[in-house]
Structures are given as C-alpha cells and as structure tokens.
Design a protein that fits this description.
18 helices, 20 strands, five-stranded antiparallel beta sheet, Uridine Diphospho-n-acetylenolpyruvylglucosamine Reductase, domain 3, 488 residues, binds flavin-adenine dinucleotide, binds FE2/S2 (inorganic) cluster
Length: 488
C-alpha cells in the first residue's frame, strides 16, 4: 500500500497525505494553491470555465487531454501531470502561441470563460496540426461562451499554428518522471473526510470491491462528480478504477470487440466509428471533449441512466457485459442488466469489467439517432438504435430496436420488432411498427420532452431509418445540413 498521493503540477512534484477522497481538482487549485486562473462556472461539467489539461501515461506514452477540473477528484490524478492556464506563459514571460493568437484575434472576451477556452485550444495545439473548422468547433463544444463570440476564437485557433511552435516544456522528461511515479501498489489515502483506494490491477480491485461492497466506484467521475458538487454527498470509501491499465484495453477479436470498462468515450469513438458512421456522430455529440476524455463506457452503462447514450446503441448491436465478483466472472446480455429505474443486475461486490460488442452481421442495416434540445453537449430526450437483418429477397429476417428516454431503463421494443419481422422493409411495415410502439412504451413527460413528443419521435426515427436506407441522397441529418451550409 502507498499512502501518499503523487503527481506533477506543471513541473513541480506534489506529494499529499492525507487527502479528502472527493476534493475536486478545481477546489485544490483555487483554494489550496491559489491558482485562480481556472474558474468555477457551473460546477457540473457543462461550461468548461474550469478546463485544465492532464498528461497521463497511456501504454507508457504520454497523452494530453482537456478535462473539467470542477468534477474530477484530485486523488484520481495520481501519477499524472496537471497543467493550468498559469503554466502557459513561457519562462521569459512571453505568451504561449495559444494566448498570443487569442490576443491577436480579439478572442478574449470575458475573464470567466477565456481561461477554459485557452486550455481547450492548448490541448488541441498539443495534439493536432491544422485542424478543420469543424474539428475546432468540436474541441470548443465543451466551452460555453454566453456572449456568443465564437468567431474570433475560431480565428485564434487557426492562427495559433502560425506562431512560434517551440515547446516550453520537455515532454520526454515529463514522461520519464511519470514512468518513475508509476507503481503497482494500491494507493490508500485516509483523511477525516473518508478513505480513497486506487488499486493498480484488476485482481486488487476485485478484492477491494469484495471487502468494501458499499464503496462508491469511480471511473471518469462525470456522473459521480456531480453527486458531490451538486448533491453535496459525502462518499466514503471511494474506490477509483483509474489506475488500472488493463481495464482501458480495447481488443478486436474478429467478429466482436472487447472494450475494457475504463476505455474513455474518446478512446471508444474511433473503434465504434469503424462499425458505423452514425456511431461516430453519436460519440461526437456525447458531452463535450472534456467529458469524452474522462467518461468511460463502463461508467455510462453502470450508471443505469434511462437516457444514457451508449446503452440503446449497444443493446441494438447485441452487446453483453463481463461482470466480475472476486475471482468469478459472468457474462450477461446488456439488455438484461437494466432491471428498473436506476436498478441493475449487479450483485454486492460485483463490477463491470468489460463490454463485448459484436460487429454488424453482413446484410444488416444499422441506425442510431440522438434527439436532444441542444445539438452539442446535451443528453438525449430520445435515443433510438435499430439493427435490421434483411434477406436477399428484401424481407426482414431479424430486428433489434432499442430506445432510451421512453421508459425507466434503456429497453428493446419487442412488439415493434415483431411488427417488422417477416415484412418487406417499406412504408407499410414502418406504419404498422409505429402503431405497435405504444404497446412497448408509456413514456413520461419531463423537462426534456413531453410523453407525446417522445412517442411521436420514436416513430419518426423509424421513418428516418427507412428513408436513409432506401432513398440515398436525401439529407436527414443536422450534421450533413450544417456541412452543406458551411460549404455554401
Ligand atoms: C456535461 C456533461 C455532459 C454529458 N453528456 C452526456 C451525453 O451526451 N450522453 C450520455 O450518455 N451521458 C452524458 N453525460 C453523463 C456521463 O458523462 C456519462 O454517463 C459517463 O459515461 C459516465 O462515465 P464515468 O466514467 O464518468 O462514470 P462515473 O461518474 O465515474 O460513474 C458513474 C456510475 O457508474 C458506476 N461505475 C463506474 N464504472 C463502473 C464499473 N466498471 N463497474 C461498476 N460500476 C461502475 C459508478 O459507481 C457510478 O455509479 C454527461 C455528463 C456531463 C457532466
Ligand atoms: S465549472 Fe463549468 S465545467 Fe467546470
Ligand atoms: S467569453 Fe465569457 S461570455 Fe463569452
């Protein structure tokens, strides 16, 4: 056991013991280190004012990502490097190209959002060369500017690549330091506010979860963080899964893909995109970049939200879960995992170890639509994912239709599927399937959408699926229409 938290703040080695298990990175920076450049706007991962950049080892290589400091617990950054807006100025006092470009293009509007915007652009600058405007917009989608002045910020994002590119910190030296900090000991922090445990192996995790079945498991903390900042909950003990490399692995096994539960949305996206471009669009619209860099596939499923975006897609694809309890593993179909509102088939001492996703069968048509009030960084009101197997004669031989937002759990539409199987894939079949939807779902009204809207939308998504598969060239997607508008 190691009882001291260790990480780099810029190039300074920080060692902390004891540490509150749910102390947020933002509170530590602002209240304890007096680094007040990072701001608190919403404290729930939405506005991006708190954005910092984190360097972490990914299979021994250094990887930099923007995250929301307001909902991230400091001890989960053991073995990482934290960079804040204060670290950008060069030793001689001159501005970093990202900052200089913001000044040159008049991109700095209010002091509240600007530091977060600069840090999102800094992450982009570290990772990519000459990104497209669409990619820049994507990188900024997690930074809300209420004065709507994005144009000069986008101009700054283009200009920053034309300024001095010299590195002002030595990435190799940082990687060496993080490698030296990495160990296989369980990190065990104790403080008057509670305990924080972070094992480095799956076996150690399995033992700890068995020993502390009431502990709160934390993956990316994009949900759990809000229980603390908004719900004011005290969590004790906390078990973090973040140090376990093996849980981040993604393996292609021929006809299926195995995702470790801790694979982040950013890591999952290109792999799911290889199955369907619509999955790429779904993942691109999943939170903002900061949320995708932290949130995990396992957390999205284990959270059990009826409007989580991945469950409908993965249920339609026929995914299953590997659940681990002590030394035992069991596989269950994902659709059987969700029992009731926020209630899952997860036994005491059990956790999600991996998600198995079959590749699309040949002759299958797949569709996914996310309907939300905002196009970017918003959770679904309704999400529909459909997989149809269609024989050579054009008749539907199998159907898997899954919806989020229509019931207390993400759920298959079994009656609607039955209305399609054995039919030709055409307007008449879709009309009959839509009539069957009320037998599958009795949705609720809430602030995201009314019950009537949800049911009508569920049917409209089936119709969109038919149009997309039978009338090529008809534009049905906002993303496509936006691209069209951009290129005149
Ligand atoms: C600004 C913002 C935007 C968001 N946008 C979206 C969106 O567009 N679509 C969407 O679906 N969600 C969205 N979310 C919700 C959230 O980001 C996702 O649900 C995310 O996938 C949760 O993953 P995590 O790793 O952060 O989980 P955590 O917050 O760490 O954990 C969530 C729950 O899962 C449990 N858990 C985590 N991992 C495991 C495991 N391996 N085994 C057992 N239990 C586990 C935890 O104990 C907790 O109960 C958004 C959140 C924010 C803050
Ligand atoms: S303060 Fe708004 S995202 Fe962190
Ligand atoms: S930069 Fe703060 S509101 Fe626009």
């Amino acid at each position: 056991m190691r009882e001291t938290l260790r990480f780099l703040l810029g190039d300074e080695l920080i060692e902390i013991a004891p540490c509150d298990p749910t102390l947020t990175v933002l509170d530590w920076l602002r209240l304890e280190r007096r680094l007040t450049g990072s701001k608190e706007g919403c404290a729930e991962g939405d506005c991006g004012a708190c954005t910092v950049v984190v360097g972490r080892l990914d299979r021994c290589r250094l990887r930099y990502e923007a995250i929301n400091a307001c909902i991230r617990f400091l001890p989960t950054l053991d073995g990482c490097q934290i960079l804040t807006v204060e670290h950008l100025k060069r030793p001689d006092g001159s501005l970093h190209p990202v900052q200089q470009a913001m000044v040159d293009c008049h991109g700095s509007q209010c002091g509240f959002c600007t530091p977060g915007i600069v840090m999102s652009l800094f992450a982009l600058w570290l990772n990519e060369n000459t990104p497209s405007v669409a990619r820049i917009e994507d990188a900024l989608a997690g930074n809300l500017c209420r004065c709507t002045g994005y144009e000069p910020i986008i101009a700054a994002a283009q200009r920053m690549y034309h300024l001095d590119e010299a590195e002002w910190f030595d990435r190799d030296a940082v990687a060496d330091t993080l490698r030296a900090l990495a160990d296989m000991e369980t990190l065990a922090l104790t403080s008057p506010k509670g305990r924080f445990l972070a094992p480095a192996t799956v076996n150690a995790l399995a033992d700890l979860v068995m020993a502390h079945p009431q502990a709160t498991l934390v993956a990316g903390a994009t949900d759990v963080g809000l229980w603390v900042t908004k719900g004011m909950r005290r969590l004790d003990p906390v078990i973090s899964l973040g140090r376990i490399e093996a849980l981040r692995e993604i393996a292609d096994r021929g006809d299926h893909i195995v995702f470790g539960a801790m694979a982040t949305h950013a890591e999952v996206r290109p792999v799911l995109a290889s199955l369907s471009p619509q999955l790429d669009e779904l993942m691109r619209r999943f939170g903002g970049e900061q949320v995708r860099n932290a949130g995990t596939i396992g957390g999205n499923i284990a959270n059990g939200s009826p409007i989580g975006d991945l469950p409908p897609a993965l249920i339609a694809l026929g995914a299953s879960l590997v659940l681990r309890r002590g030394g035992e593993q069991r596989d269950i179909p994902l659709e059987d995992f969700f029992l009731d509102y926020r209630k899952q088939d997860r036994r005491e001492g059990e956790f999600v170890e991996a998600v198995i996703v079959p590749k699309l069968p040949r002759d299958a048509e797949f569709h996914i639509s996310k309907i939300s009030k905002r196009f970017d960084e918003d959770i679904s009101a309704v999400c529909g994912a459909f997989l149809l197997e269609i024989g050579r004669d054009g008749w539907i031989t199998d159907a898997r239709l899954a919806y989020g937002g229509l019931a207390g759990i993400p759920k298959r539409a079994l009656e609607t599927e039955a209305a399609l199987i054995g039919r030709a894939w055409d307007d008449a079949a879709v009309d009959d399937a839509i009539l069957a939807l009320p037998r599958d779902f009795t949705p609720l009204s809430d602030m995201r959408a009314s019950a009537g809207y949800r049911l009508a939308m569920a049917g409209n998504l089936l119709r969109r699926f038919l149009i997309e598969t039978t009338r090529p060239g008809v534009e049905t997607r906002v993303a496509g229409l936006l691209a069209e508008a951009r290129h005149g």
